[in-house]
Amino acid sequence: VLGLWPPVAPSRRPKRSAVLFFEVEILDARTRDKLCFLDKVEPQATVADIKNLFSKAHPQWYPARQSLRLDPKGRSLKDEDVLQSLPVGTTATLYFRDLGAQISWVTVFLTEYAGPLLIYLLFYFRVPFLYGPRYDFTASRHRVVHLACCCHSFHYVKRLLETLFVHRFSHGTMPLRNIFKNCTYYWGFAAWMAYYINHPLYTPPAYGDEQVKLALAVFLFCQLGNFSIHVALRNLRPAGSKTRKIPYPTRNPFTWLFLLVSCPNYTYEVGSWIGFTIMTQCLPVALFSLVGFVQMAIWAQGKHRSYLREFRDYPPLRSPIIPFLL
Ligand SMILES: NC(=O)c1ccc[n+]([C@@H]2O[C@H](COP(=O)([O-])OP(=O)(O)OC[C@H]3O[C@@H](n4cnc5c(N)ncnc54)[C@H](OP(=O)(O)O)[C@@H]3O)[C@@H](O)[C@H]2O)c1
User: Fold this and answer.
1) pTM of this prediction?
2) Is 245 close to ligand 1, i.e. is its CB under 6 Å away?
3) Using an 8 Å Cβ cutoff, are 102 and 177 in contact?
């Protein structure tokens, strides 16, 4: 579509549009070197179209790894932004940053979540070289250990299925380097938690069955809550779109937490891990819950701020992750 229109003879040019084409120059955001010059770009061209044209000149920078900005240090333009609505003249200067090699979100999530699921099971089944030969393939005599394995596996199977069938992501990819960081975090913690919970010398919770039952109730409640929020978020976005809307409570009571927080899925996620901590009474689990909480609180604050920026009528009562507190 772009730059391919045959030039129109001046006498036959429609009067209503003074500019038929734009020129776009793309500079390196760091060095300001000129990387590419595109002439005859349609005014209706989107940033995604420009990225496609740019990648023809520089195939190593495929569209998903490009960030194009109006200002070298400014925000990245959205793929759906239209050239003629940007604050540029007929010669637009865009600044390019390389986001690095990209990998699809679905691959990322599948790798991140399948890892903990399998690693935990290795410890649960006590495969050789973990606890010494006499414990190989033996089973724990504590019922809570079996219950914990069911809960842990349930959690990650749920996440895998949600990644495949529930979430509608707006970004197709993320930087490849993130996967190493994320996998170290998820896989490492899963191994550490599983090692202690399935250890032959593991001691069950101090308050016995009562503690385990309470913990299971908290865990299941929060898992249901988390799933309900994910479904509510999915229903906000028509298939194939990138629309972002203000989420509101639906008829499902688990979503009523939207009255008080912007990211109730994170609130429920933290709740699930608190439940798992009470159930197993295990220090690495408590630490995983704490680190997860800190990370999700930071993300929730970012998401909350962007809701406030994007929507003037955003409900003022909401906090990012913990009602009235945080
Ligand atoms: N244990 C841990 O350490 C930990 C850490 C992080 C996450 N998690 C779990 O993983 C789940 C997913 O994490 P996430 O960070 O991807 O959650 P998220 O940002 O809340 O997003 C979940 C899905 O909903 C979409 N979405 C969010 N807000 C939307 C809106 N206003 N309108 C339309 N769609 C919207 C997102 O699309 P976009 O692609 O546009 O964002 C994404 O597909 C969490 O809920 C949590 O259960 C666990």
Assistant:
1) 0.83
2) yes
3) no
Alpha-carbon separation of residue 119 from 68, 110, 193, 223, 273 (angstroms): 40, 14, 10, 21, 18
Residue pair 110/242 in contact (Cβ under 8 Å)? The answer is no
Cβ of 213 closer than 6 Å to ligand 1, yes or no, is no
The answer to whether the beta carbons of residues 214 and 140 sit under 8 Å apart is no
Q: Rounded to whole angstroms, how far apart are CA atoms 107 and 104? A: 5
Please tell me the distance from the alpha carbon of residue 290 to that of residue 197, in angstroms, as a whole number. Answer: 18
Q: Is 236 in the pocket of ligand 1 (CB under 6 A)?
A: yes
- The three state secondary structure string of the chain is CCCCCCCCCHHHCCCCCCCCCEEEEEEECCCCCEEEEEEEECCCCEHHHHHHHHHHHCCCCCHHHEEEECCCCCCCCCCCCEHHHCCCCCEEEEEEEECCCEEEHHHHHHHHHHHHHHHHHHHHCCCCCCCCHHHCCCCCCCHHHHHHHHHHHHHHHHHHHHHHHCCCCCCCEEEHHHHHHHHHHHHHHHHHHHHHHCCCCCCCCCCHHHHHHHHHHHHHHHHHHHHHHHHHHHHHCCCCCCCCCCCCCCCCHHHHHHHCECCHHHHHHHHHHHHHHHHHCCHHHHHHHHHHHHHHHHHHHHHHHHHHHHCCCCCCCCECCCCCCC
**243 HSE (CA, 13 A, CB side):** 12
Ligand 1 mean position to 266 CA, how many Å?
A: 8
Cα of 85 from ligand 1 centre, angstroms: 30
- At 7, is the pLDDT very low, low, confident or very high (cuts 50, 70, 90)? very low
pLDDT tens-digit series, residues 27-43: 999 999 999 999 889 99
